[in-house]
Write a structure and sequence with these properties.
The protein is an alpha+beta fold. The chain has a domain of 132 residues. The chain is 33% helix and 11% strand. It contains six helices and eight strands; from the N terminus they run H-H-H-H-E-E-H-H-E-E-E-E-E-E. The strands form three sheets. Strands 5, 6, 7 and 8 form a four-stranded antiparallel sheet that branches. Strands 1-2 form a two-stranded antiparallel sheet. A hairpin with a 2-residue loop joins strand 3 and strand 4. Helix 5 crosses helix 6. The longest helix is centred in the first third of the chain and has 20 residues. The chain is globular. It starts with 33 loop residues before the first helix and ends with a strand.
Length: 224
């Protein structure tokens, strides 16, 4: 599911505006916290302005929300006929267990637990997060970068308190072509034709807004 985003370093030293004296416009909890870790996943999986696949703030925010719905589906909305292990490759009630399942190259590329069981990411993930934070906190007023980071943080914190305000746009899908499906998003991958999670996952087409934030979303074949 994870992707390596190409970053255009148009805001590096010498080009970046001076940091605001008003204080940070965007912050994140530490990686060791559940909300900080979840927010980092949402940020890592989507493009920001200047990166490959970026379309708009609304498109990136929609992708973050749908990624969260995939996690929620794998935790609490297992369709009839499936077991959680079939859909999520793990049996758990904790979102961080979903994210780290399979280790460094597992369910979410680059997110894992270290040998002591602590939440961790490969260096490139945190490096990109810190790079985006530096841009977000530069200049005299908050911009798109700060808005997107704060949106990811808000999604993560709201979810862990008990919900997702944004609707699951895939919830009502019941058929894709001739294939009956469960509805809801259950996987996402970089939006390339050669990426597919396999098994009973069914690609959600463009006509159903299945591509968001340079990610392709998948629902499940109905077993009823």
């Amino acid at each position: 599911m994870a992707r390596v985003l190409s970053i255009f370093f148009w805001c590096l030293s010498g080009l970046a505006p001076a940091a605001s004296a008003a204080g940070p416009f965007a912050t994140l909890p530490g990686m060791e916290t559940e909300s900080g870790y979840l927010a980092r996943l949402l940020i890592n999986e989507v493009p920001f302005p200047g990166e490959g696949g970026y379309v708009s703030v609304a498109n990136t925010e929609a992708a973050m929300a749908q990624i969260l719905w995939v996690l929620e589906g794998r935790l609490n909305r297992i369709p009839q006929g499936y077991r959680q292990a079939h859909v999520a490759a793990v049996t758990t009630s904790q979102v961080t267990d979903l994210i780290t399942a399979g280790g460094v190259h597992g369910q979410c590329e680059g997110f894992y637990r270290d040998p002591n069981g602590r939440l961790a990411t490969v260096p490139r993930v945190e490096e990109r997060v810190q790079y985006l934070l530096r841009i977000a906190n530069s200049g005299g007023r908050p911009g798109k970068f700060a808005g997107l980071i704060n949106y990811a943080r808000g999604l993560a914190e709201s979810y862990l308190r008990g919900g997702i305000a944004e609707a699951d746009r895939f919830a009502a899908i019941r058929r894709i072509g001739s294939v009956p499906v469960t509805g809801g998003g259950y996987s996402w991958m970089t939006d390339r034709d050669y990426y597919h999670p396999g098994g009973n996952f069914v690609k959600i087409p463009n006509s159903m807004e299945g591509s968001l934030g340079n990610n392709r979303f998948f629902t499940l074949r109905s077993l009823q």
